[in-house]
Amino acid sequence: MSELSATDQLKRTLTLEQIEVNLFLGRSRPGETGRIFGGQVVSQALLAAMKTVEGRVCHSLQSYFIRPGDPTQPVLYQVEHSRDGRSFTTRRVIAIQKGEQIFNMACSFQVPEEGYSHQDAMPDAPAPDTVQEERARLLELFADAPATIERWPETPIEMRAVEPVNIRDPKPVSSIHRVWFRLREDWGDDIALNQVVLAYASDYSLLGTGMRPHGVSWMTGIQGASLDHIVWFHRPTNFSRWHLYVQDSPSASGARGFNRGSIYRDDGVLVASTAQEGLIRKR
Q1: Does 63 qualify as catalytic in the annotation?
Q2: Which helix (H) or strand (E) holds 8?
Q3: How far apart are CA 250 and CA 258, in angstroms?
C-alpha cells in the first residue's frame, strides 16, 4: 500500500471521531514523535466546536496551550455550549490527554449578515513563483546534515518565505516576516473546512517572528513554545490559493514574544488576522 500524501494525512488528522454528545477524539499522524503541533490542536478543537453549531460561521477563536500534547495518544475534545443567541453562538472546547487539560479554546460563531466593510491594503511582495519553496531551502541549508532533514517530512502546507533566516546561524533582522502559503490541494470552497485548514497553517511561522530581532532560533539554544493563539476570520476563502502571511513582533519581554499576523489572499483580500504570545527563553 502506498504511503499517504501529506494532504491526505492532514485530511485524516482532521477527521474526528464522535464518541458521545459533545465529545470527540482526535488523532495525530502515525509515527509522529515529540509533541503535537499546536496548529493541529487548534484546528481539531475548532472542528469539534463546529460540529455542534448549525447555520453560523466562526468569526474568532482564542486559545491557550497548557501542556505539551503527546502525538502517540488520542486527544479528547469536550465541547461546552456557552451560549446560543439570536445572532451569535459561543462554544468552549477543552482538550484532554491522560486526564489533564492540554489546551482550551473559546470560539464565537455568527449568523451571516451584511454590514460596513473596509480593510488595509495588502503590502507589496514578490510573486510566490519567484520565491524559493521552504523545503527546498532547508534541503540546501542542511545538505551536510541529512538526518536533520529527515525530521521534517513534507508538510501539507506549501510555504515560501520572502525574508527567510538561517536558523543554523541567525542574525538580527527586522521582525517583519512575509510568507506565501497555501494548502497543496484544492479541497473546495466550504467555508468551515477552509477556516479549519487556515487555523492549522497559521501556527507554522508565527512563533519565530519574535526571535528575528534577536538573531536567535531554536537551533541556537532557545526554548520556544506557543503560549496562546488567536484567529479572527474576516472573509471566506479557498486556502488552496496563495495567501500572503504578513507577520511582525512589536514587543518581547519577560521571556515572551508577542507576534501578530495578517493573512491576505493573492487578490489582496484580507481574510484573517492572528495574534500569539510565545515563550522565547534562553536555555
Answers
A1: no
A2: helix 6-13
A3: 7
This prediction's pTM:
0.95
Q: Note if 97 is an active site residue.
A: no
Rounded to whole angstroms, how far apart are CA atoms 116 and 32?
A: 45
Per the DSSP assignment, residues forming a β-bridge with 279 are: 225, 256
Q: How many CA atoms lie within 13 A of 184 on its CB side?
A: 15
**Catalytic hit among 97, 203, 262, 273:** 203
Residue 247 designated active-site: no
Specify whether the CB–CB gap between 263 and 245 falls below 8 A: yes
CATH no. for 1-112: 3.10.129.10
Residue type at 15 in one-letter notation: T
CATH class of 132-283: alpha beta
Where, residue-wise, is CATH 3.10.129.10 in the chain? 1-112, 132-283
Q: Which of 28, 40, 108, 226 is catalytic?
A: 226
Give the H or E element holding residue 134: helix 134-141
User: pLDDT of 187-222, one tens digit each?
Assistant: 999 999 999 999 999 999 999 999 999 999 988 889
